[in-house]
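New to this. Explain these tokens.
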Amino acid sequence: MALLEIENLTVEFDTVTGRFRALDNVSYSIEVGEVLAIVGESGSGKSVAMLAVMGLLASNGHIQADRVEFEGMDLLNMSRRKRRKVIGKDISMIFQEPIASLNPCFTVGFQIEETLKEHTSLDRKQRKARAIELLNSVGMPEPEKTLKKFPHQMSGGQCQRVMIAMAIACEPKLLIADEPTTALDVTIQKQILDLLMDLQAKSGMGLIMITHDMGVVAETADRVVVQYKGKKMEEADVLSLFENPQNPYTKALLSALPENATGDRLPTVSDYHMNGEGAA
């Protein structure tokens, strides 16, 4: 049984001009201990599917699916009470823009301990000790002092480490990382990726890496799902995808990498006459 199974998931949003389909009959799964990359440009629906899984779509969102199951449990028809026990504990998510995702009104310590308070039976003293342990595990210097800091007192890279600490606080079986290196400089990006892969290897959790960066895909993934305009274009193991891409959009993404440049300019997606066809 797969850890997470998504079958024919469609997500639409109400807009002033009518319904907009952000995700169109997308299907994929992830196994225990696997790293799955979901790749595509902005607006391809990469994050929408995961927000649907987490129950975090905006109120104007509408979901249809044949199946969205976590360890055999139906996430779409699960009661709110039961869902709260699963989300944040067994399934956790690292969001884009870590500074914006952390609450500016509360200290780092308060926010980590709130997660532990919700999902564990630890007392106050134990929660603080666990928060320090988590900050240590993600490489934060002086973790006891960090507990007392507010998000605006830290750098983007430090906020991202705090977000990761919160996400792994309850030792999730599935971690979703949504563009975890966005807005970070190259050195910090490498550190964050190395940290995520190290945590994944040690815990054996499933990891879904949402990204537009094919370099991140090559470095982290076991298997890759390529999306374009809300549709799944291709799915393959990472080696097959890079060596023998089957879909024109996948070829466009790979050809646009600087190391694959063959002329004076890089090709663009429009060079491949992409208009949404070729969905897997």
About this structure: The mean pLDDT is 90. DSSP finds eleven helices and eleven strands in the chain. Residues 178 and 210 are 5 Å apart (CA to CA).
